[in-house]
Amino acid sequence: SWPTSSWTLSRSSHRRWCGGYATTSLGRVELGGDTKAVLLAAGLIFLWALLLGVWKYRQMAASPEGLAHPYVDTAHRAALLYSFATLLLATFVELSGFGTAVNLIAAFAVIGFFAAAIGVYTAHGILRDTDNQFRAGNEPPGLHQFMWALVLVEIAGFSVLLAGFVDGQIF
């Protein structure tokens, strides 16, 4: 049988039995400052994606082929994906057993590379200097070093947050 009084699901929600249905009411959510910072970053990246979408649409509408420049398209898609990836980071930050400083450094190292990648794609879209920065002759200086740094930092940063989740929620 269902209880008739409220019981706590988390620090921010309450579930109660009401007319034969379990209902949830959310009060003010108490998030850590580190989580709030990462959520703000996710929102800003999503806003960036929406603005890139307007730019992409305008290029598509003006093009006889109905296509935007490949890097405008790539910037838009990357920003959309990275905004939601940043929400995932926020979840791991909130559930981490590690301290605020560790969480912020790990999350913003990853987010910094997300933003840098979107920025590079946006720059190529503005300059229209290439449709493939990896093609021989089009490679900007330091491209491969940047890519290896991106790989290392994104994997390491998320691994720290995953370890914090394991520490805080499993052990």
Structure overview:
This protein is 65% helix and 8% strand. The chain is mainly alpha-helical. A three-stranded antiparallel β-sheet has the order 1-2-3, with no helix packed on it.
Shape: flat
Query: Spans of 5+ residues with little confidence (pLDDT < 50)?
Result: 1-16
Question: Order of strands in the sheet with the most strands?
Answer: 1-2-3
Instruction: Give the helix tally.
Output: 4
Order of helices and strands: EEEHHHH
Quote the average pLDDT: 89
Number of strands: 3
Q: Can you give keywords for this protein?
A:
171 residues, mainly alpha, 3-stranded antiparallel sheet, 4 helices, 8% strand, flat, disordered N terminus
Short précis:
The protein is mainly alpha-helical and 171 residues long. The protein has helices spanning 33-62, 70-94, 100-127, 143-170, and strands at 7-8, 13-18, 21-26.
Topology of helices and strands:
Layout: E1 7-8, E2 13-18, E3 21-26, H1 33-62, H2 70-94, H3 100-127, H4 143-170
Antiparallel strand pairs: 1-2, 2-3
Helix pairs in contact: 1-2, 1-3, 2-3, 2-4, 3-4
